[in-house]
Automatic annotation (TrEMBL):
The chain crosses the membrane at residues 51-70, 259-277. GO terms for cellular component: mitochondrial inner membrane. Belongs to the SURF1 family. Probably involved in the biogenesis of the COX complex. Keywords: Membrane, Mitochondrion, Mitochondrion inner membrane, Transmembrane, Transmembrane helix. Signal peptide: none annotated. It is found in: Membrane; Mitochondrion inner membrane. GO terms for biological process: mitochondrial respiratory chain complex IV assembly. Pfam families: SURF1. It is a multi-pass membrane protein. This is SURF1-like protein.
């Protein structure tokens, strides 16, 4: 009976010894009476950061979202403006108003005038390509079609006023009046033109005394030199004459890149909002920390 008891005691002692871990790395020997209790982590591996600490980053997605929404409004305004300009271009010509100051609110509106050209005071705007030439698609052909717009004082028949008329395009070699004598119209003529104002936001300043032409449409300066009223119209295609300037050179174009801006701002808003959410509302354990935890787990 005692033999059986001693064998049982030895059996349980062996089992208990196996439960106690041998000391290899982080393990404990059977000599330790009680292995140390596992101490809970004082700080979690991933902590949610406070809302206030993430407020500066949250401002970025909110601000870019507002800018994207604003660009949508700007795009609608620009499309409406382009539509209005096209309607003005297609409208029936109206007589030139008695008060010429009204023309400041009539850009791209067609007007009809009658008068006489003063070819002795021609001015030029260039370099310009001919909008109606078939060879303006690029390369050498486009370079060959480059020239200037001929701007000529026009004495009105029904009042004591002289305005500026952009008669149209001529090539550089035809800029001297003697090269296009057939186009120097004499006597009273009827014209239909489009009201134009000075070009805006021009970064290169014109030097007509050096270049012989203006780089942009500067109505006030050109009117001062020619001694005319500050009124400028582009003659339509019907004003073209053989050997002379070719009319109808009005370009109706407004930059409309607001859709690109909308996509840019909304994309930036989405990305920064995602970064804020990952860092302050739904943080995750980093890969380096995750690898460390896995390695320690394998050792145990």
């Amino acid at each position: 009976m005692s033999t059986i008891h001693s064998k049982s005691s030895c059996f349980f002692f062996r089992i208990k010894s196996r439960v106690r871990l041998d000391k290899v790395g982080h393990r404990y020997t059977s000599q330790d009476v009680n292995p140390p209790r596992q101490i809970p982590r004082e700080k979690p591996a991933v902590q949610k950061k406070s809302f206030l600490s993430g407020l500066p980053l949250l401002i970025v997605p909110l601000a870019t979202f507002g800018l994207g929404t604003w660009q949508i409004q700007r795009r609608e305004w620009k499309l409406k403006l382009i539509k209005e300009m096209e309607e003005k271009m297609q409208a029936t010509p109206v007589p030139l108003p008695e008060d010429l100051k009204e023309l400041k609110n009539m850009e791209y509106r067609k007007v009809k005038v009658r008068g006489t050209f003063d070819h002795s005071k021609e001015l030029f705007i260039g370099p310009r390509s001919n909008l109606h030439a078939a060879d303006t698609m690029g390369g050498e052909n486009k370079a060959a079609s480059m020239g200037v717009h001929v701007v000529t004082p026009f004495k009105l028949a029904d009042r004591d006023e002289t305005i500026l008329v952009n008669r149209g395009h001529v090539k550089f070699q035809n800029r001297p009046p003697q090269m296009r004598s057939a186009g120097q119209v004499e006597g009273e003529v009827d014209l239909v033109g489009i009201v134009r104002l000075s070009d805006k936001n021009m970064y290169m300043k014109s030097n007509p005394l050096k270049d012989g032409f203006w780089l942009s449409r500067e109505v006030e300066e050109m009117a001062d030199i020619a001694g005319t009223s500050e009124v400028f119209i582009d003659a339509d295609i019907n004003s073209s004459v053989p050997g002379g300037p070719e009319g109808g050179q009005t370009i109706v174009s407004l930059r409309n890149e607001h859709l690109t801006y909308v996509i840019t701002w909304y994309t930036l808003s989405a990305l920064t909002m995602y970064l804020w959410w990952r860092n302050y509302r739904n943080p995750r354990i980093s890969r380096s920390m995750l690898q460390t935890v896995k390695q320690n787990f394998r050792k145990t």
